[in-house]
Every structure is written in structure tokens, then in C-alpha cells.
Amino acid sequence: MNFDPGFDIRIVAQPLGFTYGNDCFGPEVETRRLNDIRKSLRNPDCNGPEVVYAIAMDVGKTRHKAILEEKMLLYGAVTYAAGKLGDEPVRSQGHIHKKSSHSGWSPPEVYEIWSGAAIIYMQEYAADNPGRCFAVYAGPGDVVVVPPEWAHATISADPATPLTFGAWCDREYGFLYDEVRKRNGLAWFPLVDEDGEIVWQANPNYMPTELVKKSPADYSETLQIGRVVPIYEQFEQDPDKFQFVSQPALKQEVWLNFTP
Question: Could you tell me the residue range of the domain that residue 250 belongs to?
Fold first, then answer.
């Protein structure tokens, strides 16, 4: 990895997934195959890697397991295959987060890129009018926050290099796909051009909208998330820092007109 996530987790290429150090816990990974995600793609009949990505939800240091459960927080790790999905980059399915029973909110998510190049795409609404749309370009060590309720997907921006990232999530995580799938995807499709660069095409199933392409925001004042230090280590130093993920109302004023 190009960035130390702050605990002993390692990427495995064959089969795609992770291994964990002696002081860490983690599940057997779930994989998403191309056939699992075709409904989210611009061209559902495309070719691509058979296993598109592997997910390990609920990883971390063993000594933190109890406090993570108490705070309803969960740390997840995802690694992508290299390559393309037809003329699209490898990416997750567009989705929103289901509302958690303990907070009543569709929770936010805090991403940290470990290796590769990422674009975190997000739009305000999974509706005919998607509202504001952002493509946030991020590299190893960068942090990107997706606010509550927003539809989003994580995109590999470099087909030649596998993307790997971690994220703080609500422990009652769940993904809702229906509103995105019935519009054949999110409001903007990422495509890979002949030079291997990402270009964007509007999805005609939405009202016309602008796509804002940008670097990650500085969250040090709004959410007290520092730079350089891994977000897992920031939790280790201050276990309350990411409580807003499972209790979004703590930062209710931040989510108004949020810019990622």
C-alpha cells in the first residue's frame, strides 16, 4: 500500500481480499462479481474482471472491538481489481445508505484512500433532479466525506492500478440501490477514454445538471478530521471523533449546503 492505514491489514491479489495481523480482527471478505453489478453499469453487457472488488466490513485492532460496538461504528476496507468494465472504470454500485434504527438518519461515510487513484462521485438526491453533483479526485492519504442521504459511488481513476481504501461507517450499514438502478445509474457516467483518462457523460434519465470536479475539502474545522494521520489512528487517539458517523445529528449544521 502507498499509505499506512494505522493497523495491520494487508492486500491480497489472488484471490482478491485482505489478511489481518495478530492484533487485528476482520471477516472473510465478500466479493462483488461483474454479474452482481451489471444493473448499475452504463453497458450491462460489458466485459471486465470476473471479481470486481472485495469488501471487508468490520476490521480493526482487537482491543477496539468493544468500543466500536458501543459507539455503533464500523471500519470497512475495500480493494478493487485492475482493469475496466467495458468503457467504464472499475467502481462500486451507485447507492444511498439505509436509515439506521438508532439514529433515524441515512448516515455519512468517511473515506480514506490507501493505494491507487480514486474518484468519489456523489449527488444530493437519488431522484429525477439529482441536485448538486461532485466528482472528488483523491489519492493515497486523502480523506473524502460523503454526507447523509447522498447517492454515491467510488470509482477507480487508474485502470492500470488497483484501488484500495478504508472507510468509517455506521454499524447498521445497509445499501439501497433501487432508485439508482431504475434510472440506469447515477446522474453522471465515468468513462475511460483512449488515453486511459476519465471523462464524464450525463445520464439522460436525470434532469440536466452541472458536474463539479474538485479535490477533497479540508475537514479540519468542520469535522475536526486532521490530515496525514490515518483516520483509524485518529479514532484511536480520540474515540469520540467519528461519533458523527453513527450520530449524524451531532453535526447537523455541517450537512447544510455541504461541499465535499
Answer: 9-255
Range with lowest mean pLDDT among 42-46, 84-88, 162-166, 196-200: 42-46
Distances (CA, A) of 238 to 57, 100, 109: 21, 23, 18
CA angle 167, 74, 84 (to 5 degrees): 35
Question: What's the CA gap between 191 and 198, in Å, rounded?
Answer: 6
Single-letter amino acid, residue 133: C
- Residues 190-216: what's their mean pLDDT? 96
Q: Residue 4 domain-assigned?
A: no
C-alpha cell at 47: 466485459
Centroid of chain to Cα 118: 9
Residue 239: inside a domain: yes
Task: Output the nine-digit C-alpha cell for 210.
Answer: 452541472
CATH classification at residue 179: 2.60.120.10
pLDDT in tens, 133-185: 999 999 999 999 999 999 999 999 999 999 999 999 999 999 999 999 999 89
| Residue 211, in any domain of the structure | yes
Strand segments, DSSP code E, in the chain are 9-12, 17-20, 24-25, 30-33, 51-57, 60-61, 73-80, 84-85, 88-89, 96-97, 109-115, 118-123, 133-138, 143-146, 151-156, 164-170, 175-176, 188-192, 198-202, 211-214
Total domain count, the chain: 1
Is residue 169 included in any domain, yes or no?
Answer: yes
Please give the helix or strand (H or E) that residue 107 lies within, else none: none
Q: What secondary structure letter does DSSP report for 217?
A: P
Number of H helices and E strands in the chain, helices first, is 6, 20
